[in-house]
Backbone:
């Protein structure tokens, strides 16, 4: 790619800001965010202002469904088992918390607080197993699920009315209040995916090319279980800007100078490839923006699915190269760990950052370029999650991991850039996504909701492909050599699947845009909820602002109309 970048220096992002941007949205299938410091579960937006929640309003049909569920029970003689059954029925119906939900429950003659007391959430401090979930064939009797398919530790778990918690992965112990549980099944669930798709649509229809280029570096070469580790952190720092430095500095502290030198060497080696990965994204994003704006070549009917998939395959081949080399270096360090180092690592709980001492920076920033320093910190934090985790954690991803070309990461993460100890909202994606859908007409909404089915096969393929890649890369922990060709072939396939999903999104979003009224456009801009401080003035190299790049002609991404004359 001959893309020319008007960049004064190649850098992945400001140290604090970029590390923050490794954040991804946790699964939203029944999840609620951890309580805020004031004890409230109500979310606030990135500017600290209260926003109306989509679940504050129930349709008449939803109210009737709540009453139908409760009509099966006697409020005066309600048992704990019945309360759990009610919570499960609400969860299956997609009912979520809020004043409207509680009012509807009360109107049916039931006390929301009593339901909560009969079937309370797990208590704070019950941290359970610090390791990620294990496949069923690797579970011990202590972690094996009961005959009904629920983990033993969850058999008596209750839920607050209207705030159901999705069932967690097998083998995972109890989580503290508000933490919830995470799994691939949850990430690819219809609800989690619909919230994410809708949030993408809102970002794409209200943003621009520059916003769409913003990408957290943690979404590249992400086969080390880091996303899972941050999502299950019982210390609730997983989406705080302090999380990555805290993990990285602990690892760097216990590594030898020779081991740290390997990380530095890797960072310097991958600088250019990391930049190339971003450069390859720009034409694709430009093509999607052209589809949205109707800037389609005269001889074309629109984007070509095959061309998009071919291009994303090239992007993901770079991801595969980055992942392979990263696993090769980290694997060598793991194999070289001494007993003393392993003992120190054993004291760090995978799912509890409170067990990681707060240490000073272990690497001199002045001795490295900004790019190299951020990469070293990324590698160090991922070394721990990979070592302490397993394949299940490596395969896991947040629902918004794919089709990352529509500006949703910018809309969510930009307020956190450069803000130390800033926690990114875990409810923003779901709340804004639901509000976006509510602002659309039924035909417009159907274009968005229909994407859940259109991408289903691709998501299943992505999970299968990620697992195959993760298994191969984990071999580096015990072996010095792993077949590269196989990993790269899998990575290219991964890219094709991501490309097809992205094509579906881009074309559907463009269709919706064509029919938006002026009032709807104004409403969507309000939902974007970013003030003038966050207007994008250029583009992004990961999370670092850069001047607008020169993007080559993107006509190759569009299908050519074949006429009868062409066939002769």
Residues:
């Amino acid at each position: 790619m001959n893309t020319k970048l008007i960049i004064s220096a190649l850098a992945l992002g400001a140290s604090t800001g970029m590390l923050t941007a490794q954040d991804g949205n946790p699964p939203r299938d029944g999840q609620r965010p951890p309580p805020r410091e004031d004890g409230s579960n109500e979310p606030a937006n990135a500017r600290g202002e209260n926003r109306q929640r989509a679940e504050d309003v129930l349709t008449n049909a939803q109210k009737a469904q709540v009453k139908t569920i409760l009509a099966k029970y006697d409020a005066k003689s309600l048992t704990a088992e019945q309360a759990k059954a009610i919570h499960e029925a609400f969860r299956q119906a997609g009912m979520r918390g809020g004043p409207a939900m509680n009012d509807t429950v009360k109107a049916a003659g039931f006390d929301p607080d009593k339901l909560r007391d009969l079937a309370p959430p797990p208590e704070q401090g019950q941290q359970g197993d610090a390791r990620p979930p294990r496949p069923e064939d690797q579970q011990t009797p202590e972690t094996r699920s009961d005959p009904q398919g629920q983990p033993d530790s969850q058999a008596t778990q209750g839920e607050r009315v209207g705030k159901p918690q999705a069932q967690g992965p097998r083998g995972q112990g109890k989580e503290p209040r508000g933490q919830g549980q995470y799994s691939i099944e949850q990430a690819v669930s219809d609800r989690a995916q619909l919230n994410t798709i809708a949030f993408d649509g809102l970002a794409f229809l209200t943003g621009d090319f520059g916003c769409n280029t913003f990408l957290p570096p943690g979404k590249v070469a992400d086969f080390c279980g880091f996303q899972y580790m941050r999502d299950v952190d019982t210390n609730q720092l997983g989406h705080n800007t302090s999380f990555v430095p805290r993990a990285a500095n602990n690892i760097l502290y216990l590594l030898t100078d020779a081991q740290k030198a390997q990380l530095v060497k890797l960072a310097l080696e991958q600088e250019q490839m990391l930049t190339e990965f971003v450069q390859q994204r720009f034409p694709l994003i430009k093509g999607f923006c052209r589809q949205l704006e109707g800037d389609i070549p005269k001889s074309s009917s629109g984007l070509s699915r095959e061309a998009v998939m071919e291009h994303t395959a090239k992007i993901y081949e770079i991801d595969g190269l980055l992942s392979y080399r990263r696993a090769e270096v980290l694997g060598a360090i793991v194999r070289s760990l001494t007993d003393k180092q392993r003992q120190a690592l054993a004291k760090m709980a995978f799912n509890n950052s409170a067990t990681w001492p707060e240490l000073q920076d272990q690497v001199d920033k002045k001795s490295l370029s900004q790019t190299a320093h951020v990469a070293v910190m990324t590698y160090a934090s991922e070394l721990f999650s990979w070592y302490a985790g397993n394949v299940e954690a490596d395969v896991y991803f947040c629902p918004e991991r794919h089709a990352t070309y529509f500006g949703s990461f910018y809309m969510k993460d930009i307020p956190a850039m450069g803000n130390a100890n800033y926690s990114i909202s875990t409810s923003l994606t779901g709340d804004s996504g639901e509000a976006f859908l509510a602002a659309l007409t039924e035909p417009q909404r159907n274009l968005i909701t229909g994407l859940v089915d259109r991408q289903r096969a691709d998501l299943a393929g992505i999970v299968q492909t990620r697992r195959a890649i993760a298994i191969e890369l984990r071999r580096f922990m015990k072996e010095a050599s792993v077949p590269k060709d196989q990993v790269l072939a899998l990575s290219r396939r991964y890219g094709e699947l991501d490309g097809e999903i992205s094509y579906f999104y881009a074309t559907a979003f463009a269709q919706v845009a064509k029919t938006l009224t002026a009032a709807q456009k104004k409403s969507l801009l309000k939902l974007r909820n970013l003030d003038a401080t966050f207007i994008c003035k250029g583009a992004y190299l990961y999370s670092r602002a850069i001047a607008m790049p020169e993007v080559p002609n993107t006509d190759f991404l569009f299908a050519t109309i074949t006429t009868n004359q062409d066939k002769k």
Notes: Confidence is low (pLDDT under 50) at residues 1-55, 121-131, 134-180. The longest helix spans residues 257-293. The CA atoms of residues 45 and 51 lie 7 Å apart. Strands lie at 300-303, 539-541, 544-546, 558-560.
